[in-house]
Give the backbone structure.
Amino acid sequence: MSNPLVHAFFVGRAFAEAVGEQVEITVTNALSELGKFDAEQRERLRQFTEEVMERANRAEEMAMQDRPASEGYSPRSQADLQAMIDDLRAETAQLRAELQRYRNRSV
């Protein structure tokens, strides 16, 4: 029969090895599940983004069907819009000047 102290040492070492293996298995499984969860969430986000973009494109197409072709966006229409804004600013400045002249005559 061996010494109880030596036997306790080997039992403790076997216990530590077994616990280490179980921790390794548990951590590996947890990381695997985390990786799966991350991949699933990324896929869900990608699908959600695609669905949102499809809905937006359908809504835009439906809205554009009701509009005449001349109202569509183009760089030229953007320039026309800027010209219209400039014209409105000029008219506002002229009206302010006329109003100021009218007020000065009334005083």
The chain is about 90% helix and 0% strand. The radius of gyration is 38 Å. Helices lie at 4-65, 75-106.
